[in-house]
Design brief:
The structure is a single chain. The chain is an alpha+beta fold. 31% of the residues lie in helices and 28% in strands. It has a three-stranded antiparallel sheet with strand order 1-3-2. A hairpin with a 4-residue loop joins strand 2 and strand 3. The longest helix is centred in the N-terminal third of the chain and has 11 residues. The chain is globular. It starts with a strand and ends in a 7-residue tail after the last helix. The structure holds copper (II) ion. Copper (II) ion (CU) binds next to helix 1.
């Protein structure tokens, strides 16, 4: 199990949090997603076949790209 924390500047409200959590948890292998509008962080707990590349690509696709 891997836990990663991403900085996602586009998170601004509870709606963003909901969208991110709903979308990312759909990836096979993702166990838990916690987005936070105050810290603008997304914590993802996952196992294979999910990967960091895949999670980051999905976040970019739904307009919440990870900060470089
Ligand atoms: Cu929002």
């Amino acid at each position: 199990m891997t836990t990663v924390t991403y900085s996602v500047p586009n998170i601004s409200c509870g709606h963003c949090v909901h969208t991110i959590q709903t979308e990312v948890v759909e990836l096979e292998g993702v166990k838990e997603v916690r987005a936070n509008a105050e810290t603008k962080n997304v914590v993802v707990i996952f196992d294979a076949p999910a990967s960091e590349d895949q999670i980051k690509a999905l976040l970019a696709e739904i307009n919440y790209p990870v900060a470089a």
